[in-house]
Amino acid sequence: MKKVAIGAGHGLNTRGKRTPDGEHEWMFNNQIVEATIRRLNDYEGVTILRLDDPTGKRDVPLEERTNKANNWGADILVTVHHNAYDGNWGTHSGTETYTYIGSWPNAEKLAREVHDRVVKAYGLTDRGLKKDNFHMLRESIMPAILVEGGFMDSSIDIKQMRKEAVLQEVGYAVAEGIAAYFSLKKGNSRDIKKGDRVVLKLSASRYATGEVIPDYVKGKTYTVQQVKSDRFLLQEIYSWVEEQDVEIKSRSSSDYDDKWIRSKVDGLRFYNKPSWSDDDVAGYVQKGYGFPVVIQKLKVGNGYQYEVKNSKGSIYYITAHSKYVYLD
Ligand SMILES: [Zn+2]
User: What ipTM was estimated for this complex?
Assistant: First the structure.
């Protein structure tokens, strides 16, 4: 089990730590850390300890943070911050990641994995890997990195920092970097597929696109319309949600739900019954045309046919060979 100690820098009300407009640094740091933890939980063989106060109320002292990580026996430590130049809006910009002064190959490897992904997710200038004598890096006994996501007083960076969806992607980037460092494997996908009915959990907080999920859509059952790696498009609310935010309610009865079968060739025969005989031919379909409903796949003679339904509800049979037909 790999042990990851992670914290958002400062507390909600730590003095100073503000954008020129008064936004709190911890808010940015926290959103990233929350997303990192969510995404890390998709992996197996990893356990997480949060070093800051998740409510933000208390600015946990630095010594308490490193003691916590050291006593727990963390394998790595990650702390997330946002930079400041002089507290006035300017065009300085970019992401940088720190390790402790001197040569620390493991910390540097972790920094590289995380930094490159964070730069990509933020889309800001790459200021590179740096070294400094920060408490969190010096007093921790495991490989430790400090990420400075962007500048709070940059008129460029703040635009990205104010987008919840960007902060979420940055959090995921940190998690993917950690996963790459440890070569973690994703947990077994629950194999939710199109047509399945799922319940949106009450604990769900944000759509996959980053917006807050209103309470009235939670706890209800929806149909999965589209699947994209770890996220699902729910038909009734036309919104993408993350895998961990849904629970399966019922499996779709068929693998072919909502799928058309179409011909790849002109003049493809279809039949009145499961048969390959000329006598049972019911008609022909042209290339790109087909049937809106596939019921099942049947073994017919030496090959396979799909039992299909046309728009009027009539049942026919057509070859299932991928040379001639495709599902879409
Ligand atoms: Zn900070």
Answer: 0.99
